Amino acid sequence: MHSSARRRAGFSLIEVVVVVAVILVIASIAIPRFLKARLVANESAAVASLRAIATVQIAYDLTYGQGFAPSLSALGPPPTPPPTAAKADLIDAVLASGIRNGYSFVYVPIDSGGTGKPDAYTVNANPVSPGQTGDKYFYVDQSNVIRYKFGGPADVNSTPVPK
Fold it and tell me: How far apart are CA 122 and CA 140, in angstroms?
């Protein structure tokens, strides 16, 4: 009786294999869904960041009277207060750096009148690793219409993001 109690104290190899197989099946279903959810979250965060940039551009122009910002970093926080036209403290330092939530933000000021004051701008939000950090490429300009495209950088002719 003593020897049979000792044999029943652990799990059999078959039981362990079945448990591992069940865990693998669950993981094979859950991991792709988690990765897709993260990709969609990155895309939503990119759209929100573009909305923030477009919104603060108006505040920048009204505050400093210099047209739109000369760079994305000019919208970021200053090393020491108070804010200035060179560091307006209108967006956080992460977004001002140009990379956030798996997206790279490319800001281009446009001075079409040659006044030295940008009267237009474009911002492209491109996935850092297409297919992993995002599937969509985004674009916004002074019209404040955010647009997207699959497979390459979006532009003024791309599909508007639904509101």
Answer: 6
